[in-house]
Amino acid sequence: MEQLFETLENLVRWLAEYAIVLFEIVGIVTIIAAGIQGVGGLLRKDPLTRLKLAKGMAMALEFKLGGEILRTVVVREFSEILMVGAIILLRAALTFLIHWEIKNEEAEAESEAEKNITKHKAQ
Question: Among 46, 57, 66, 88, whose CB has the most other CB atoms within 10 angstroms?
């Protein structure tokens, strides 16, 4: 029975470690893709560039946060738990700030669209 638990523990650890790497890679690729799209939007002078870039960064942070949460499965020492906890808090704070920025950018874009509609109706 002890052998079975050890095998299951090793399986969970192996699965978590590979999932962490996968989530980190997806997060990095998402950041790069959002950055490239942001540069393209900046060059085209797209007024929604900041909003699109913020959404891409938020999505990337969600993947990276998921990787950190999974990392709690494989930590062994209390100092590692503290480090992972600090990283999770930092990434959660960044995610909160980015979502706040997205909300403000969406409100600003909506306001601008309403002004344009009112302007066109007046003409």
Answer: 57
Divide the 123 residues of the chain into consecutive groups of 10 and give the mean pLDDT of each group: 89 93 96 96 92 92 90 83 87 89 86 77 68
Estimate to the nearest angstrom the gap between the alpha carbon of 50 and the chain centroid: 15
CA–CA dist 34, 52 (Å, integer): 8
Helical segments of the chain, H only: 2-44, 49-74, 78-122
Amino acid at 30: T
The CA distances from residue 53 to 6, 36, 60, 65, in Å, are: 44, 9, 11, 18
Q: What is the DSSP letter of 47?
A: T
Q: Where are the domains of the chain?
A: 2-122
Phi (first) and psi of residue 72, to 5 degrees:
-65, -20
Number of residues that this document lists for the chain:
123
Instruction: Give me Rg for the CA atoms of the chain.
Output: 21
Residue 123: predicted pLDDT: 65
